[in-house]
């Protein structure tokens, strides 16, 4: 099932399939290690505000909800 990283429930894993946004945002995500084909595990997200926290390649990363909404992921189920 396709969704975005912001909508992925905490505790779930998914594979990144693409981004919506410009080169600057894509470059920032790739520098963080978030690129198509990578598995991400969503740790947490604060209700209505605050960062989305994920683990990629064993590293914990935080990003704003606006960026997380532009990261398209595919869940296993």
Question: Could you give a quick summary of the protein structure above?
Answer:
With 77 residues, the protein is of the alpha+beta class.
Task: Note down, in words, how this protein is organized.
The protein has a six-stranded antiparallel sheet with strand order 1-6-2-3-4-5. The model has no long low-confidence stretch (mean pLDDT 92). The N and C termini lie close together (6 Å). The chain has helices at 23-31, 65-69, and strands at residues 2-4, 13-19, 39-45, 52-56, 59-63, 71-75. The chain has a single domain (2-75), classed as Ferrous iron transport protein A (FeoA) (SH3 type barrels, Roll). Helix content is 18%, strand content 42%.
Question: Which descriptors would you attach to this protein?
Answer:
globular; six-stranded antiparallel beta sheet; alpha+beta; 77 residues; SH3 type barrels; 42% strand
